[in-house]
């Protein structure tokens, strides 16, 4: 049995809590958070506290908190095998006086939408081999995809994920906005988005690229860019179109 | 029975051919294309020709050709109810001396990947009401989602689709490229991409937005931007981050 104390009460903490609770091999012995109200959802299942000086004994202390809280909370806890869950934060932001590590699930976490962790890559880092093995055992209880990455690689993976996930999502939002500006139902785009994703199961995103930029259809590119009402949309259109044209320059 | 002549032999033409052939209400009486070799795949099912002056009698002539071929081919065919299949091309590019229209399936078409047209919005335009009804009957044979749009709305819808589909796909490609540059398996991003899409079934893309830009995490934004090797990636990072920050400015 791996004893875990979870620090933080946000979306990721709640999702990890549910995932760990579903495993016979993990016991979340405590959840700690600054705000009493936010601890409410955990109370019927485990011990909670607002006092980070009074944490239970545990094999792993998991900090699921915002990036800018990691350093100070890490110093405050200052014991055990302490891990943070951030993609872009170095292991060195944790105190070097303790056993430290990283437990980063590569996923987009939203309120009220359960994550199926089984397919989610969990990226681990630890300085000590025994500590790594503990984290690996813990990660294996929730995911089939566990890998060891140092802080630099994890940082770059997070950057890649920002493009693939956060930025893509914003482009969908812009697509919907353009529809709304033109009295078109935004739902029209959904089948297209679903199909674009489905394609990835059959071909690389490099092969799957279609559209005016890849075809080098400069007339359509010019007309579309001119029709965009928002300057920010024009900037994005220009930057991505240039990048697509560079990527497929040899074809044209 | 609706009699159709298909002009063009590319991906869209092949997909439409298969979809029409699956319907008892449509007969593709002929496929016309400039290149004899490209007609080969159609030959065992229907009549083919390379001579656009020798088209069969039909209820609808469907031109599934590249945007820049529409005007000249339209003049060459110059008869019947003639429709093009382009999102960004006005109906006025077809000769005004004939019955003309537009039959635009909002979808991303790739070689060797069959489209399920049932969910694909088919956007129609016609000047004459009787012609519109013919196109509507034809569209209903392949899709449950048929709508009437004028050329301006269709153009804007196509622009929205470029963001939601073409541009998103390129961001996935950039994500994979960043992985490869850093010796990370590009497949790591796939579960994240799938989950990002799945979310759209449960919430709007506006709500689903996560990441450093939405959180206003300027430290991570700066670090990630500096770590990007390609100038074109930095331009995109900057433009989309600014747009996200504008979109969620009230929250920060």
Your description of this structure?
The structure is a homodimer of 252-residue chains. By secondary structure, the first copy, chain A, is α/β, with parallel strands linked by helices. Helices cover 46% and strands 15% of the residues of chain A. Chain A has ten helices and eight strands. The first copy, chain A, has an eight-stranded mixed beta sheet with strand order 3-2-1-4-5-6-7-8, sandwiched between helices. In chain A, 48% of the residues are buried. The mean pLDDT of chain A is 95. The interface between A and B is large, with 93 and 93 residues.
**What quaternary form is this?**
homodimer
- Largest sheet features of chain A: 8 strands, mixed
The greatest inter-chain interface is formed by: A-B, 93 and 93 residues
**Backbone CA Rg of chain A:** 22 Å
The helix/strand series of chain A, from N terminus to C terminus, equals: EHEHEEHEEEHEHHHHHH
Average predicted local confidence, pLDDT of chain A: 95
Number of strands of chain A: 8
How many angstroms does the end-to-end distance of chain A come to?
Answer: 59 Å
What's the tally of helices of chain A? 10
Helix/strand structural class of chain A: alpha/beta
Fraction of helical residues of chain A: 40-55%
Shape of chain A: elongated
């Amino acid at each position: 049995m791996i004893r875990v104390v979870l620090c933080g009460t946000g979306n990721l903490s709640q999702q990890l809590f549910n995932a760990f609770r579903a495993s016979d091999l993990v016991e979340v012995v405590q959840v700690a958070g600054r705000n009493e109200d936010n601890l409410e959802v955990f109370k019927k299942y485990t011990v909670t506290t607002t006092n980070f000086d009074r944490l239970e004994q545990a094999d792993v202390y998991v900090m699921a908190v915002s990036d800018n809280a990691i350093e100070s909370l890490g110093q405050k806890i200052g014991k055990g095998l302490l891990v943070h869950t951030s993609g872009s934060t170095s292991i060195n932001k944790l105190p070097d006086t303790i056993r430290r590590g990283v437990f980063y699930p590569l996923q987009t976490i939203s309120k009220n939408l359960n994550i199926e962790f089984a397919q989610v890559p969990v990226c681990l880092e630890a300085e000590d081999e025994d500590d790594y093995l503990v984290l690996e055992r813990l990660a294996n209880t929730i995911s089939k995809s566990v890998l060891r990455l140092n802080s630099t690689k994890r940082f770059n993976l997070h950057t890649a994920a920002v493009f693939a996930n956060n930025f893509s999502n914003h482009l969908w939002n812009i697509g919907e906005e353009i529809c709304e500006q033109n009295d078109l139902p935004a739902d029209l785009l959904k089948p297209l988005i679903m199909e674009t994703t489905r394609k990835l199961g059959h071909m690389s995103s490099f092969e799957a690229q279609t559209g005016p930029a890849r075809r080098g259809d400069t007339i359509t590119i010019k007309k579309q860019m001119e029709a965009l009402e928002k300057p920010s949309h024009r900037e994005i259109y220009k930057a991505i179109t240039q990048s697509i044209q560079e990527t497929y320059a040899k074809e044209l």
